Input
Amino acid sequence: MGDRVLVVVQRYGDVAGGAETHARELVNRLRPHVSIDVATTTARDYWTWKNELVAGEDRVDGVRVFRFMVDAGRARDFRRHERAAFRTEHSLADERAFIRAQGPHAPELLEFVHREGPGYDCVVFFTYIYAPTVYGVPLVPERAVVVPTAHDEPALALAAYRPVFHAPRALAFNTVEERDMVHHRFGNQRVPHDVVGVGVDVPARSDPDRFRQAHGIDGPYFLYVGRIVESKGCPELFDHWARFAARHDGHATLVLAGHREMAVPDRPDVRYIGTVSDADKFDALAGCTALVYSGRLDSLSMVTLEAWAMGRPVVVSARAPVLASMSRRAGAGLPYGSADEFAEVLELLLERPALAAALGEQGRAFVARTYTWPGVVEKYLDLFAEIRARNS
Amino acid sequence: MRVLIVVQRYGDEVVGGSEGHARVAARRLAARHEVEIATTTAVDFWSWAPYFPAGDTAVDGLPVHRFEVATGRDDRFKELEDAVLFGEHGLDAELDWLRIQGPNAPELYEFLDRSRRRYDAIVFYTYIYAPTALGLPIVPERAALIPTAHDELPLGLAPYRALFHLPRAIGYLTPEERALVRGRFRNEEVPDLVLGIGLDPLPPGDAAGFRARHELAGPIVTYLGQVTAGKGCDELVADWIGYREAGGAGTLVLAGSVGMDIAPRPDIRLLGRISDAEKSDLLAAADVLVHPSHLESLGIVLLEAWQAGTPVLVPAWNAVTAGQVGRSGGGRTYATHGAFATELAALLDREGAERGAAGRAWVAEECAWPRFDERLDALVELAHG
Output
């Protein structure tokens, strides 16, 4: 049945994590078209890499998964190694120590890629940053597809990652912005690449009223979905919301859904509803005036794509390079550069619902163009075919 | 452009094929570019023991940065190499082998990482040694690789799998080397070209003087290079004896340091190492040059023989030298040891002059300096992108 494909990823199965979820969804979508196996570790936790699953052959969603033990989890002094490697003045030895300390160090996984990798037509590596990709790609460069899921972050400056971006047969980016950032950093334009993206799954039906009733929300609301944490820009969001509310005499609500890792302002127009089911999330997205996001570090935001898929616009920080640029390309988002602009944007959307709906529709069209599973699967199959042709 | 050349050894005292090519390339490039060299303190390719002082110096007026070798080859090397090439072993053993083979110069890698932006192109010589295998992956975005690869077992090891996919350009010495590497690594996507080499004209040789000094009459068949079994000289001697026993005439003259036992015979002369002047005389006097080596990356000695108008005889199983003979028309090949005598006789009795002239014409065209310079420029241009 078609190509034989091996997917290498640091964790796989019932584990949390963007890249890991992405890998699993992709594997399941590719299954009807190619013969596919997964090689991964026995870890469930991306921080400790503790061996929680059984080593050996496993099945996930009916797919064969080879699990290998992690010899050494994340080092206790990982942060020290990270600081050393991220300093402008650092040695190559610092970089090796950082990658080792970061883990997961799974030598048997690498032996497997070394021994069995050449028996597959293509080997797809998920996430550039971890050891299985850094040391695995150079073992099978002629059949490697790297899905880097790269952010513009300090690790990208390390020499150790240059072969990951120069050696593989193909690079599969999530967004145009990720591609441009990687090309700028590495000067590796000659490596074949494509913006393959990911698919967005949307339920056939959604019911905003069900969501409103369940949570007792009246009137227009703006929605934040994600971890409620400083690194996602939540302090800025709360500050700007307070300033917007002070000058606006309507009765809009800010609804926060997700895992809470910092204090949420105690005020009547801010509602924290905890973590939500997928069905709840889509109901909430369908009914919101807009999705709001103040974070600045993000590669691809799944929830942004989901908001667009539900026909709703997004409000994002102009300082989030990927999201601001995607919003511009989609014509489905409004960036803000200050608290005043944040308030103006929210007022505009509240006062002109037709404009908000039109922006949302452009988002829906953007997602349909690029971020549907059939389109994504087709791009991967094209990459696989090209690789097989080059190696035959 | 600013060009850095990285090579395992460099300097007057250094003898070696890829090192020699590196030095020629540096001198030629320097006429049009700013050229620097990064290398080690080693002079010999086995121990890599420190010989030159570490630090900055100059050779041929070009800046040379020398870095210390952290660890030389130790007692474990042979054992480890046997395990890696012939035995059951893990991935780690192959990486250890690479480091122990050396010359492992960590300060050289730090220099590359730190200073890479000062250079438009960085040219790495010889795939097999650590400065290239561990250095090139640090600067793939501006690297050119001159692998000087042979069809040998290490080429199959893990540390080299990505090496041939990483650079922006590859310069091969011969079309055969390119075919070997492309077939093995499927790296056709990396732009490449065949560099060859440039040659100065050979000083005119004194054939009659050579014959007189060595009291040689009749056909002279010569071999120039290390006289060792590794270079195929044991087979050459056996083939020569076969040729003589079949009624062939002449003397086999072996010039080069002798590293094997050869039973004394009146029709085999051992000259040992000879001077450049003596080499010109020998090539002028010789009727045929035989080069029995199985592995060769360039076969410079063939090119020199052709400069002197001397035809050559090579085994058909050496793709590189047989390919050169095929392209130049400057000699013949023997497909089996049994065919050696017939092929040698064909050159001595009939075709020698014609084949030698064809070789001379081909070398004059192929190894002219302007051709070589153009190819070098094209290579650094590709690396610069």
Q: What stands out?
A: Chain A has a mean pLDDT of 94. The first helix of chain A runs from residue 18 to 30. The two ends of chain A are 17 Å apart (CA to CA). Chain A touches chain B through 27 residues (CB under 8 Å).
